[in-house]
Amino acid sequence: MAEAELVRCPNCRNGIWLPHGFAGFRCDYCGVHVGVRRPEPYYRPNPVGRRAIMPMPGVQNFNRPRHFNKPQEPTIANPPLVRISGNKRAVLCGISYKNTPYELKGCINDVNCMKYLLTTRFNFPEDSIVILTEEERDSKRIPTRQNMQRWMRWLVEDCRAGDSLVFHYSGHGSQEEDYKGEEVDGYNETLLPLDFQETGMIVDDEMNATLVRPLPPGARLHAIIDACHSGTVLDLPYVCVFNPSGKCVWEDHTPRNGAPKGTSGGEAISFSGCDDDQTSADSKVLSKITSTGAMTFSFIKALEKGEGKTYGTLLSSMRESVRAARQKPAKPTVLTNMLFEGGSQKQGKIQEPQLSSSYPFDINEKPFYL
What is the pLDDT of residues 143-182, one digit of tens each? Predict the structure, then answer.
C-alpha cells in the first residue's frame, strides 16, 4: 500500500492522510481547496510490531506468540475529527471482550456512568466526549489498537492553557518485560485493546508519549484507568505512597536512564485501579445491582457523596469503598480468593486505587476538579 502523510486544512484544521505524490486536496469538512508543497520526496518508515505479550494471571491461553519487530504494512486512513465546544474534552474507552474466555461484564457500564458524571457534574459538553466500545456503530469508535491510538492523539491535539482533558479506560491490563531498563520492577504496564492478540498491547511508554509529553503549560489531563496492573500505566514520574503515619509521600519514579516522562509544562494526574503488582475486580460486589469496575464505581461514588473536595479525600474514600466491599470470608476457598482478589489465583494483594502525577503536590490541600 502506498506511503501517506498527514496534511491539515489551513481553514478548519481537519486532517487528511494523502498518498505521496498528490499535489492537493479538497477538504471534506469545510470544502476548501488546499495545495500541498513538497520540496523533496517524503518517506515514512515502516512501523514495527510489538514485543511478545506476557501471560495475564488467571486467564488461560490469553496471549499468542508474536514476532519481535516484525514489519507491518503501512495503512492509509482518515484520522477521526470531532468538532468540540468549550475547553473540555474526554475519551472514554470500555472493552468487554464479548464472546471470549476473558469477557468482562462491567466495562461498558463504567463508560456510560462516567459520561453521565462528566456531563452532569463537571459540565463537559456531549459533543466533546468520544466513547469507544464494541457497541458503537461507527467503525472508528470500536476500541481497536489503531482507534485507541488515534483518539488518544485527538484528545491532546492542539490543546492549550485552560483545557481540561479526561481519558477513562475500563478493560484488561497486563505487563510485559521492559527492555529499556526504565522500570524499577523490570516490567512495562499495558492496556489491552479489543484486537490485542492480532496487533499487540498499548505500552505505558506509548501512553506517556501520546497523552503526557505534549501537554503545554496551563493544560490539565486526568486519566482514570480501571484495569489490572495499572498503577504506573501512564509512566508519570511521581507516585503517591502512604508512610506508616498515613501521610502521602511522593516516590520519584523517574527512569534510571534519564528518559523524560513529564509534561511540556502542563499537569497530568492519574487515578488507577490498583498497584502494578495487583489485579482489579469487575463484579456486582460494590453496586449490588449490576457489574462495574471496582475503581470506576468507587471514584463516582466518592464524588456523589461529596468526598472529592481534595485529591486526598477522594483517594481515601475510593480506597475505603473498595476495602469495605472486599472483606474476605472467614474461611476463603480458592474461588472466593479469586473473587476478592480480582480473578487471580496467584496474586495475594487486594487492590488499592493509586494516584500518580507529573509533579508532587499536597493531596490534602489541592482541590479536585475536572
Answer: 999 999 999 999 999 999 999 999 999 999 888 888 887 8
220, 213 contact by CB (below 8 A): no
Annotated active-site residue in 228, 240, 248, 274? 228
Catalytic site includes residue 172: yes
Q: How far apart are CA 261 and CA 189, in angstroms?
A: 14
Instruction: Name the nearest CA neighbour of 340 among 323, 353, 356.
Output: 323
Those residues with Cβ within 8 angstroms of residue 33's Cβ, 6 or more apart along the chain or in another chain: 24, 25, 26, 27
Pick the catalytic residue: 27, 159, 168, 172?
Answer: 172
Grid coordinates in use for 288?
449490588
Question: Contact at 8 Å (CB) between 15 and 8?
Answer: yes
Active site (annotated) includes residue 222: no
Residues 6+ apart with CB under 8 A from 139: none
CA distance linking residue 331 with residue 338, whole number of Å = 13
pTM (2 d.p.): 0.72
List, for residues 311-358, the tens digit of each pLDDT value. Answer: 999 999 998 887 776 665 555 544 334 334 444 444 445 678 889 999
User: At which residue does the C-alpha cell 474514600 appear?
Assistant: 317
